[in-house]
Automatic annotation (TrEMBL):
It comes from Candidatus Methanofastidiosum methylothiophilum. This is PHP domain protein. PANTHER family: EXONUCLEASE, POLYMERASE_HISTIDINOL PHOSPHATASE N-TERMINAL DOMAIN-CONTAINING PROTEIN. The keyword Iron-sulfur does not apply. SMART domains: POLIIIAc (SM00481). The keyword Transmembrane applies. It comes from the Archaea. GO terms for molecular function: 5'-3' DNA exonuclease activity; 5'-3' RNA exonuclease activity. Keywords: Membrane, Transmembrane, Transmembrane helix. Signal peptide: none annotated. Residues 5-77 form the Polymerase/histidinol phosphatase N-terminal domain. The lineage of its organism: Archaea, Methanobacteriati, Methanobacteriota, Stenosarchaea group, Candidatus Methanofastidiosia. The chain crosses the membrane at residues 240-260.
Amino acid sequence: MISKADIHIHTKYSGNSKDFSFIPDSISRPEKIIKVAEKKAIDLIAITDHNTIRGGIEVEKLAPSKVIVGEEILTKDGEILGLFLNQSIPPGLSAEETIEKVKEQGGLTVAPHPYSVICPSLKNKIFYLDLDGIEVFNGFHRDGVLNRKTFQENKIIRKASLAGSDAHTERMVGNCYTTFEGESPDDLYKAIKKRKTSIGGSVTPLFQTMLWSWNTGCHIMKKSIADILMGKDIKKNTGLVIGSGLSVIPFMPVMAAIVINRYHTKKVEKEYPFENLIFNLDNKLKNNRSIDGASIDINDIANKIYLTSIENLIFNMDCNFKNRDNLDTDIDMRHTDIFNKMYANSAIEV
Ligand SMILES: [Zn+2]
């Protein structure tokens, strides 16, 4: 029997945004998360709040056989998901220390969105860390480039391939999922250990992020009004009522989602030019109409790929050499990393 698990879900216990302390990271309620998972036929859900397992414990009380207690831990080197945890792991440790602490309690470690351009991520450290799985499909990577890159890199690293919705609202739960043989949390644990997992589902649609902004605005407004009625910090809460009131005018969440999406796409283009080129090229080649148009010169494409891969390689080498502080510890990694990159680049079929 093949089952589905969403390995990356946030709840209202995830705390507030790092940049805007009055905005909650997620307002998802445990009972609603369970309902949505049931509706979408997701058999197991891992609750992975930021730096706490409290959400996982609360959701587990409602559906003990369906919930994996986890945490998205902010390490000095980027975020790491700990799954099957009994105790919270503090943020701020190195990736290695964090992985050790997860393993001490029998848990599993996963690199969430390793090449994210927004979240603190492990990037190429996934090549040498002792991780159990890589989130090769993150629900928030609508660009297509980052998930594809992670998938390609994991062909070299060969850890368990996992998908997580990274749901920040209830309706995002199960948008994408990991498939595995069996049905229990124990079966999922074994499947990850044996690297016998697969991925399915799709990325989070833009309208769900619009609704996320809208729901969050409504939540802040309600909470601030309640605080004003109780006489708490009236000046600050009046400001929040006005701000959140403006943010829920339907035009605002729509615009915010479009602008953030555009910003994300541009950032991906800038930080991953080679991967972006290959992705677009692949789309063009898949789309026969543009080939019939005969506007693509194959030599031109080959030259572009060659130049971009060389530029990308030189750029990465240059960054590594400039980073003298890390030179001693990273020296081995740097060479294998460059080799892997060259290998990956040459392995892509055009
Ligand atoms: Zn997350």
